[in-house]
Amino acid sequence: LSSFGKSVNGSDLWVLELSARPGEDGPEPQVKYVGNIHGDEPTGRQLLLLLAERICADYTRPSMSRQLVESVRLFLVPTLNPDGYEAHRRENKVSVDLNRNFPDPIHQRGKDLRVPVGPEQPETLALMNFTLSHRFVASLALHEGALVANYPMDGYPDGSMNVKQLKQASTDDPAFMHLSRTYAKLHTTMSASKEFPGGVTNGAQWYPLYGGMQDWNFAAANCMEVTLELNDQKWPMPPRLAAIWAENEAALVQWPLKAVLSGVRGKVSGKSPTGAAAVPLAATISVAGNTRHTSSSARWGDYLRVLPTGTFTLTVAAPGYVPVTSQVIILPSLGVVKNWVLEPVGGVKVTPLPVPKAVSPASATQIRKPGPPPPLAQVLHAPPTPTTKPVVVTPAQLGAPAPVSGNSKAVADKQGQAKAGSEEGGQQGEVEDWQMVERPGEVSPQPASTLSRVFKIASIVGVQVLAVAAFLVWRRRNQQQAPSGPNYTQLPLATLGPGTGSGNSSSSNHTSSAASFSLPMKTKYRAGGSAV
Asked: pTM of the prediction?
């Protein structure tokens, strides 16, 4: 709750904001309700106070009120004319009709209607400044004296005050009719009016007026305002207020959701020419065939365009960006959320990666034509890593072999066979496919020669031969020490009895000999010859 100005008599002009984050700016659409513009029409003053109580009470549970608060920022101005209300009169303290006191698009044709023209009252100026300091997309003005929803335009281009019963349509006439009809249908009896078909009327067609608040909102603040006449009799008796509230309760709560948000809304962002992330963009959103444009905010990129049911072609444009055009289809009571991303003129300029600088031969290895990988034996018998930690360059790193320094004479050919060059004759063998590369001041160990590899292999083979020879000598010695008789280790297992040599019929002493071998044989066989 805050005051946005003073009346002539010094009374505060109060506004109550109902939103999820009161007092904080955000991308939510902004809607305002203004009551008691005329001092002798207090119904709107009472309805807005009841509406605030209803929304706050219902916010704690899932409800239409909670959805309203979380979807829009709703501003309630219960009374714009507190001095007239106190005096029970239409005009303000100094007898000025506030609904004839705004800069008029007909009388001030071609001028900036956001600038006061002189006769504006304090209440009028306060509401002008308050409206222009926000981005209102829609508004309701609450009056009495009839039962109808009245929409712009209120005057004729020639400034005539004669009642011509001719409609003076605005550039957004279908959208205004949509807003008016939606409220009349949500009201319990307005749409059934016998005086006004569907419970709606064009302002000038009913009777012309100039300096009205709804035409100024539309022409100066780009805010679509509808004027509501909520009761045939002005200043109704207190018992009637409860019935008027019941007739308007659902309409006041649901109108922003079903009428305002049923158009197209979303965000506009623009890509950076350098390829950085897109940022919110202040852009112009226009509808084909309509001269009125809406805009997105520079801070949030949010926009909302009130539109009726139908198919529309929208174009979004911003300085320095390529315009984008697209069609949107709006179904009854269903809004469309459409986000736009604009490309900068000339496209996104992607900065190429820096080109590596040329490296001098002194600090890099010359790259040669790739060759086959080294033999497996060469890799397995590679020389040990030197303590000087030389740099090893492999084909996978360079894609090719590299020349050896001048002192490296012994190299291997592609088959891994040695062709050692003569240091005295200055000849040098073929360069092998990969090798150690030395840097200035470092020692490069040479690959092992084929002869050294042969010696290594021979030493391994020699050890194995000596081991076999030692085994054979040991076995021969054991055979010489064994007693005469059959060799049980060579007999079939089936010929062995339980500690006897019954399988052989040569002589009786063979049995005793077999018995002498029964002890070691038990460690290998059970009776019958089965393995232990």
From this structure: 0.67
